[in-house]
Amino acid sequence: MPTKSKAVLKKVLFSVLAVVFWLCVWEVAAIILARPLILPRVPDVLRELGRMFSEGGFALTVTLSLSRVLLGFLLGTLAGALIGTLTAFLPPFDILLSPIISVIRATPVASVIMVIWALISSSAVPTAIALLMVMPVVAQSTAASFRAIDRSLTEVAEVFDFSLGKKIRLLWYPAFTEVLLPGIITAAGLAWKAGIAAEIISYTKNSIGREIHDSKAYFETERLFAWTLTVIILSLIIEKILKFLLKKCAGGTKK
């Protein structure tokens, strides 16, 4: 087996063992506490998760929550990339927008959700919140990517009249893969968590957040943990897919 494959297999094995370890810690803690209303046992939560998965509305609920957050993430990424580009090349624009960006970054998410909820319908709140969480991160990462480009190499490119494709491959690609792509992955995680929080607070119809809210309100602890586990699993899947897609895009650009 090639060395690279062995390394990947070893990493996966250790990851699985780490998950199993913490599930065991959870199970032992639940047995010792012996209060399912506070901390249910792992098998009970997994059974509830399986029951939820077989329900007709589960797929619809997950799909709608994902679509709301994904839309906000895409809009926030586009807005952040545009703002970051403008601030990198137009210092007055940076001065003009920096107070707004600072306010968005400093304001507690719950406060932002309540303000947005007062202005728009609850179904649009998760998308708006995801957009607001993503935009500052991507804007900062985009501006930092442009500033990370080696100026001496830029001058060389101008002297030798490099084509746009060659400039992207030799100048922009290294800076953007090191700065922008990690920023986008971080922004995706923020968007997902903030979007679910927005669904909980605004009580969005047909959403994971609403299911979490109802589970807590009716003391359905196993269901609460099962939905929370769903959020965590989806978060990991989103991160893996995004890393794969960005790596492919970066690889294509490099070629």
SSE string, helices as H and strands as E: HHHHHHHHHH
Residue windows where pLDDT falls under 50 for at least 5 positions: none
Largest sheet: none
Helical percentage: over 70%
Q: Mind telling me the C-alpha Rg?
A: 22 Å
Count, helices: 10
What value does the average pLDDT take? 87
Beta fraction = under 5%
**Helix-and-strand structural type:** mainly alpha
The total count of strands amounts to: 0
Please, could you describe this protein's structure?
The chain is mainly alpha-helical and 255 residues long. Helices cover 86% and strands 0% of the residues. It is built from 10 helices and no strands. Helix 8 runs parallel beside helix 9. The longest helix is centred in the C-terminal third of the chain and has 39 residues, at 164-202. It is globular, with a radius of gyration of 22 Å. The mean pLDDT is 87.
Describe how the helices and strands are arranged.
Elements lengths: L2 H31 L8 H13 L1 H34 L1 H16 L2 H11 L5 H23 L3 H9 L4 H39 L5 H10 L3 H34 L1
Properties at a glance:
255 residues, single chain, mainly alpha, 86% helix, globular
Q: How would you summarize what this structure contains?
A:
The chain is mostly helical and 255 residues long. It has helices at residues 3-33, 42-54, 56-89, 91-106, 109-119, 125-147, 151-159, 164-202, 208-217, 221-254.
